[in-house]
Amino acid sequence: MSDTPETKVERKQRWKKSLDETEFPMEQMAEVIKNASRQYKGDLTVLESAIGLLFMCVMFGRRPMLIIHSASTIRKYEAILGARLTEFDFIQETTGMSDRANGFALAMRAAKFWNVVRGQYPVEGRKDAVVVD
Q1: Residues 6+ apart with CB under 8 A from 45
Q2: Residue 124 phi, psi (nearest 5)
Q3: How far apart, in whole angstroms, are the C-alpha atoms of residue 113 and residue 11?
Q4: Measured on CA atoms in the order 113, 118, 123, 126, is the torsion positive or negative?
Q5: How wide is the angle at C-alpha 117 spanned by C-alphas 62 and 78, nearest 5°?
Q6: What are the C-alpha distances in Å from 1 to residues 10, 12, 82?
């Protein structure tokens, strides 16, 4: 592996490749969604958001979602989905797309990932994504 930093062009090429290669484990995800839908009672937009989190975790990894969402929101969505995100074997900690999430990329550069997650280190644009063109 090279010690030279990745250029913007190389990073965007990696993102495109990672996006093209992302496979959604539809059978496993469908089972989680069916079970959550059977058990859920309440505002359907919250169920929709929990299901969206599941898809986003497959694409971007679990760690960027910890920066985008508050701990209480993650816990609420995990309760709806019926398990902690770490218990789903099809969700990785990070993926080739993880650093598209500004907050995650900045947290990793600052080496303060958990401080960002805890809100102790504010990151401007932590919920934003970088465009892949």
Answers
A1: none
A2: -65, 130
A3: 20
A4: positive
A5: 45
A6: 14, 18, 40
Is the distance from CB of 107 to CB of 121 less than 8 angstroms? Answer: yes
Amino acid at 124: E
Q: Annotate 9-46 with b (16+ C-beta within 10 A) or e (fewer).
A: eebbebbeebeeeeeeeeeebeebbeebeeebeeeeee
* pLDDT tens, residue order, the chain (133 aa): 456 778 888 888 888 888 888 889 999 999 999 999 999 999 999 999 999 999 999 999 999 999 889 999 999 999 999 999 999 999 999 998 888 888 788 777 766 667 777 777 666 776 666 665 5
Q: Torsion angle of alpha carbons 131, 111, 6, 12, nearest 10°?
A: -10
DSSP state of 71: H
Name the pTM for this structure.
0.80
Q: Please state the separation of Cα 23 from the chain's center in Å.
A: 15
Which residues on adjacent β-strands are paired with residue 101? 129
